[in-house]
Amino acid sequence: MEQMLKQHPKWQGRAVLIQIANPARGKGKDLEEIQAEIEASCNRINETFRQPGYEPIIFINRPVSLGERAAYYTIAECVVVTAVRDGMNLTPYEYIVCRQGIPGNESTSDSNSPKKSMLVVSEFIGCSPSLSGAIRVNPWNIETTAEALNEAISMADAEKQLRHEKHYKYVSTHDVAYWSRSFFQDLERTCKDHFKRRCWGIGLSFGFRVVALDPNFRKLSIDAIVSAYSKAKNRAILLDYDGTVMPQTSINKHPSEDVISIINRLCDDVKNTVFVVSGRGKDSLGQWFSPCKKLGIAAEHGYFIRRSTDEEWETCGQNTDFGWMHMAEPVMKLYTESTDGSYIEVKESALVWHHQDADLGFGSSQAKEMLDHLESVLANEPVTAKSGQFIVEVKPQGVSKGLVAEKIFTSMAENGRHADFVLCIGDDRSDEDMFEKIGNAINSGILSFNTSVFACTVGQKPSKAKYYVDDTTEVINMLQFLADASNPPPTEDASGIPH
Ligand SMILES: O=P(O)(O)OC[C@H]1O[C@H](O[C@H]2O[C@H](CO)[C@@H](O)[C@H](O)[C@H]2O)[C@H](O)[C@@H](O)[C@@H]1O
């Protein structure tokens, strides 16, 4: 408020903030300090901007009954909720209902005139995403919050009415009965197959959770995969990078010499089509895997694909408009400013917010909120926002590792080499797109009925993959067995004829 009166002096002598301090539920030194700070701020603002008959802040520091609160809401031009951390927060909903009033109540002169209301809400409160007409602010940013207050009270009446109508429609249709019904529906949907599943306790301490796994989900047996591999004539091998052949905890992200050598031995077998399918950029992957001449690489989730080092990168031509980056980046910046250790990675086709180095709990709760926020801001843009291992990524719609898998199988079939063995390994949310595509590939005719399919996730967790291995060491060990079972490259005699 102080900043708004400074930035927009026209409101001095006119705008009043009724600051209702709800009685605190707890006690303690911190609380006393905060109360003293609020009181001091109110006094300072009033002393600076006070005029005869005008006090900019009315500070109500006592329990306020529901009736009195409703009376304030009814007359307020705008409600401001700038909590830096909160749960759902029902204040904006109560305000909207109070501004709408009771139908047929003639107690006010303008009871039949169109209703209007304005909300300035913190992006950190739970109800924020449901209020599409509210002006959303990061309360840590005082200047933009002050601008939002000015914008709210300066807005044309017609606009205030439209926003109010939208909010009232939402609040009146999403009542407590709606919420309870939808919770029950979600619960029923989620638990539908639980009786068929096996439940496991995973992790320790705060990381402990119970996961329900499909009874057919099992550890990948090296004997079984080596046996199927040996019998196959046309094999597709799709490997994710981070968390699959590269441990998530490694500081040095270059593939090890072992990995390069195993991949080269797999690529050397003429029966094999081997791809690294990763979210990483083409320059790093291209450089890291430069010793693997015959390796295919799908970078940035398949936005770029190259079949070997002899070929040029192909771009997935669907999306060339990246205007959405100008909308997504400011949102990511807001969260970066309030989350120590986080940063933004700008790729050619995507934006990624990383929080691996942030506080574990705070980073992941910020990631969840940011994902919601991005989904609402980018609702009409041709993009998808998804979370992964310590990341939230926005990328063009239609670009997915699932599509990469489909392209690989289709092009093998077009070259008369229908895959009769598929190994696809990944650890992350983005790899689930491959597992899903592979799961449906036989029914959709992309793979034939006699294909041996090994979709495998890294770590025991709910997945669309049928198999799991425990960690990257097991992945590399298994690939080593496959490399050992591979045919070496044909040798050439002195005349250059391969044998
Ligand atoms: O598809 P992947 O091979 O699993 O790649 C996914 C993302 O990899 C990179 O992020 C990962 O490494 C970061 C450190 O280098 C780490 O902070 C993050 O938590 C990891 O997810 C890459 O930076 C992203 O662009 C990829 O999408």
Automatic annotation (TrEMBL):
The family database entries (InterPro entries) matched by this protein are listed as: Glyco_trans_20 (IPR001830), HAD-like_sf (IPR036412), HAD-SF_hydro_IIB (IPR006379), HAD_sf (IPR023214), Trehalose_PPase (IPR003337)
The reply on keyword Glycosyltransferase is yes
Does the record's keyword annotation contain Transferase?
Answer: yes
Write out the GO MF terms: glycosyltransferase activity
What keywords are annotated for this sequence in UniProt? Glycosyltransferase, Transferase
SUPFAM superfamilies in the record, alphabetically? Answer: HAD-like, UDP-Glycosyltransferase/glycogen phosphorylase
GO BP, sorted A to Z: trehalose metabolic process
- Annotated Pfam families: Glyco_transf_20 (PF00982), Trehalose_PPase (PF02358)
Family to which this protein belongs: In the C-terminal section; belongs to the trehalose phosphatase family.
Q: What is this protein called?
A: Trehalose-phosphatase
